C-alpha cells in the first residue's frame, strides 16, 4: 500500500469502532465534531508526506516493501540515519507546534525501541514479532497509539489490580484478553493500539505480562473517551483546541481476541519487564524534538503577546522572554545530545568494542534524552507558559469573535480593545491563542500531559537515583572525603 493520503487515512477510520464520547456512541469518528479539527491536522500530515516540498524529509525508501515509508519508521544504521530522523521529527513537530504529544511518530519511535530492547536481552523471537509489526506499519502507513498504565483502582500497590488487562484464554491461534488500560492519547483517531508494559510484573502475574498490537475496531474493544475540548467554536476563538485536541481514552478490552501474529509477549515475565528497559533511544529523540518545538512556539507566542500590549518594550518583560529564549537554546543542545546518544548506542550494539573507543563512556550510562524529558522539558515548558501568563496579564481573559463582529458593540471593541498600533482584531486573535494555551480546558490538559506523559514523575526520578551515574557521582565525592585532612604533602 505504501504512503497514504489524508483522505485514505480518514477513510481507514470509518471502521465501525466502538467509541464513546460526551455520553454518546459515535458511529463514524470522522463525522463527529469533536474530532474534526484534529483529523484535519492529521490528514494534513499524511498529505505532507506526498508533497514534494516535504517528502525528502518526511519519507524514506523501504527496501523490504519496495515503497516509500515515513522517516519516523526508519531503523537507523548510523549517525546519518539518526540525523534524518531528527530532521523529520523536528519538521513534523513544528508543523504541529509541539502541541500533539502523541503524533503517530511517538509510537513509531517507541516500537523501534521495543525491538532494540528485546534484541539486546536476547528475546529474539519477541523482537522478530515486533519487527513484523513494524514492517506492517511501513507497508500500511498506520497511525498507532498505546496504552500502558493499569487502572487507578488501587494505587496502594504496584501489583496489577484485577481490573488490569490480562490473558483469560489461550488458544492455538491466539489469546483472549480482558480488563482495562489507561490513558490512551490519540486512540479515538488512531488505527491500532500497542498494549505494553509500565509497572514491572512479578512471579504469579504471568497473565498480566501481556504485550500485543490490535486494530482499534477489534470486536470487544471499547474506546471510552474523555470529554471533548474542541466544541466547534471556530478557529478564531479556539485556535489550539480547534486543531490539536488529540483525545484521550480509557480502553476496555471486553474479551478481545488477539491473533497469534499480533502477540509480542504473553506470560514471559523476563521479556515483559525488558520491553523498553534496554532501548537505544528513538523515543527520547522524538520526545525531545516535540518538546523543543513546543518551547519554540511558546517563546514565539509570548513575544507576540508582549508586542500586542506594548510590554515587549520594557526590560522587565524582555528579561522574562530572554530566559525562555535561553531555555530554547538549551533545548536545542539537549535534542542534539539525544541524537548523539542514539547514534552511540546503535554503534555499540553493532560493535560492543566501540564503547571503549573514542566516546569516553559507554552509551548505556548516558541518558541525555530521558533526563531531558524527565527533568528539563516539564520545567522549561511550565516556565514558558508562566511567562506567557505574565506578559498577557488579564488580556488572556478575553471576549470572543462574536463581540468583535457584533453590530451593536463591534465598533466599541475596535475602539477600546486595540494595542499599540495594533488593531483590536489582531489583538483579540493573539489573546484568544494565549487563552487557549493558558486558561482553556485544552491548556489544563496540556499541563497535566507534560507532567505525566513519561509516566509517574516520582518513579522516573528514583530511577535516576539508582542509575550507575549516581554511584559515579558518589564515588567522586568519596574520593575527596578519603583524601585525608593533612595540609602538607608527605
Ligand atoms: C494527559 C495525559 C495523557 C496520557 N497519555 C498516555 C498514553 O497515551 N498512554 C499511556 O499509556 N499513558 C498515558 N498517560 C498516563 C500516564 O502514563 C500516567 O498518568 C502516569 O503513569 C502516572 O500514573 P497515574 O496517572 O495513574 O498516577 P498515579 O500512579 O496514581 O500517581 C498519582 C500521583 O502520585 C505520585 N506518587 C506516586 N508514588 C509516590 C510516592 N511514593 N511518593 C509521592 N508521590 C507519589 C505520582 O508521582 C503522581 O503525581 C497519560 C496521562 C495524562 C495525564
From TrEMBL:
Gene3D superfamilies: 4-hydroxybutyryl-coa dehydratase, domain 1, Butyryl-CoA Dehydrogenase, subunit A, domain 2, Butyryl-CoA Dehydrogenase, subunit A, domain 3. GO terms for molecular function: oxidoreductase activity, acting on the CH-CH group of donors. Residues 6-264 form the HpaB/PvcC/4-BUDH N-terminal domain. InterPro entries: Acyl-CoA_Oxase/DH_mid-dom_sf (IPR046373), AcylCo_DH-like_C (IPR036250), AcylCoA_DH/oxidase_NM_dom_sf (IPR009100), HpaB/PvcC/4-BUDH (IPR004925), HpaB/PvcC/4-BUDH_C (IPR024719), HpaB/PvcC/4-BUDH_N (IPR024674). It comes from the Bacteria. FAD binds at residues 146-148, 152-155, 185. Residues 284-482 form the HpaB/PvcC/4-BUDH C-terminal domain. Keywords: FAD, Flavoprotein, Oxidoreductase. Pfam families: HpaB, HpaB_N. This is 4-hydroxyphenylacetate-3-hydroxylase. It comes from Streptomyces viridosporus (strain ATCC 14672 / DSM 40746 / JCM 4963 / KCTC 9882 / NRRL B-12104 / FH 1290). The lineage of its organism: Bacteria, Bacillati, Actinomycetota, Actinomycetes, Kitasatosporales.
Amino acid at each position: 500500500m505504501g504512503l497514504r493520503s489524508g483522505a485514505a487515512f480518514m477513510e481507514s477510520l470509518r471502521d465501525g469502532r466502538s467509541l464513546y464520547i460526551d455520553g454518546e456512541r459515535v458511529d463514524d469518528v470522522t463525522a463527529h465534531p469533536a474530532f474534526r479539527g484534529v483529523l484535519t491536522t492529521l490528514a494534513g500530515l499524511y498529505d505532507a508526506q506526498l508533497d514534494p516540498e516535504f517528502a525528502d524529509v518526511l519519507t524514506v525508501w523501504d527496501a523490504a516493501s519496495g515503497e516509500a515509508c515515513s522517516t519516523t519508521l526508519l531503523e537507523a544504521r548510523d549517525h546519518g540515519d539518526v540525523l534524518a530522523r531528527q530532521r523529520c521529527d523536528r519538521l513534523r513537530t513544528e508543523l504541529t507546534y509541539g502541541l500533539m504529544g502523541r503524533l503517530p511518530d511517538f509510537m513509531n519511535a517507541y516500537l523501534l525501541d521495543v525491538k532494540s530492547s528485546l534484541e539486546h536481552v536476547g528475546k529474539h523471537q519477541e523482537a522478530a514479532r515486533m519487527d513484523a509489526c513494524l514492517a506492517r506499519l511501513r507497508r500500511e502507513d498506520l497511525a498507532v497509539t498505546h496504552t500502558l498504565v493499569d487502572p487507578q483502582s488501587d494505587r496502594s500497590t504496584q501489583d496489577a489490580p484485577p481490573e488490569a488487562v490480562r490473558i483469560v484464554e489461550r488458544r492455538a491461534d491466539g489469546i483472549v484478553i480482558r480488563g482495562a488500560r489507561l490513558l490512551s492519547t490519540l486512540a479515538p483517531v488512531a488505527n491500532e493500539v500497542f498494549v505494553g508494559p509500565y509497572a514491572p510484573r512479578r512471579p504469579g502475574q504471568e497473565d498480566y505480562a501481556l504485550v500485543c498490537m490490535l486494530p482499534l475496531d477489534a470486536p470487544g474493544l471499547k474506546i471510552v473517551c474523555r470529554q471533548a475540548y474542541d466544541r466547534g467554536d471556530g478557529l478564531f476563538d479556539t485556535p489550539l483546541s480547534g486543531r490539536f485536541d488529540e483525545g484521550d481514552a480509557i480502553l476496555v478490552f471486553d474479551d478481545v481476541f488477539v491473533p497469534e501474529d499480533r502477540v509480542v509477549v504473553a506470560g514471559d515475565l523476563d521479556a515483559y519487564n525488558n520491553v523498553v528497559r534496554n532501548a537505544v533511544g528513538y523515543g527520547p529523540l522524538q520526545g525531545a524534538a516535540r518538546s523543543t518545538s513546543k518551547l519554540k512556539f511558546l517563546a514565539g507566542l509570548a513575544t507576540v503577546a508582549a508586542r500586542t500590549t506594548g510590554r515587549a518594550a520594557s526590560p522587565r518583560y524582555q528579561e522574562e522572554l530572554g530566559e525562555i529564549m535561553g531555555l530554547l537554546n538549551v533545548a536545542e543542545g539537549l535534542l542534539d545530545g539525544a541524537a548523539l546518544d542514539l547514534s552511540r548506542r546503535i554503534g555499540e550494539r553493532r560493535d560492543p568494542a566501540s564503547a571503549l573507543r573514542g566516546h569516553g563512556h559507554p552509551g548505556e550510562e548516558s541518558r541525555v534524552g530521558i533526563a531531558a524529558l524527565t527533568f528539563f522539558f516539564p520545567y522549561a515548558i511550565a516556565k514558558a507558559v508562566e511567562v506567557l501568563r505574565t506578559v498577557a496579564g488579564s488580556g488572556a481573559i478575553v471576549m470572543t469573535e462574536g463581540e468583535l463582529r457584533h453590530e451593536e458593540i463591534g465598533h466599541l471593541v475596535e475602539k477600546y480593545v486595540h494595542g499599540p498600533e495594533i488593531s483590536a482584531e489582531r489583538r483579540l486573535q493573539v489573546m484568544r491563542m494565549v487563552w487557549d494555551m493558558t486558561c482553556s480546558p485544552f491548556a489544563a490538559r496540556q499541563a497535566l500531559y507534560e507532567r505525566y506523559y513519561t509516566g509517574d514523575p516520582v518513579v522516573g526520578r528514583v530511577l535516576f537515583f539508582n542509575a550507575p551515574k549516581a554511584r559515579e557521582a558518589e564515588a567522586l565525592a568519596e574520593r575527596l572525603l578519603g583524601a585525608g585532612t593533612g595540609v602538607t604533602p608527605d
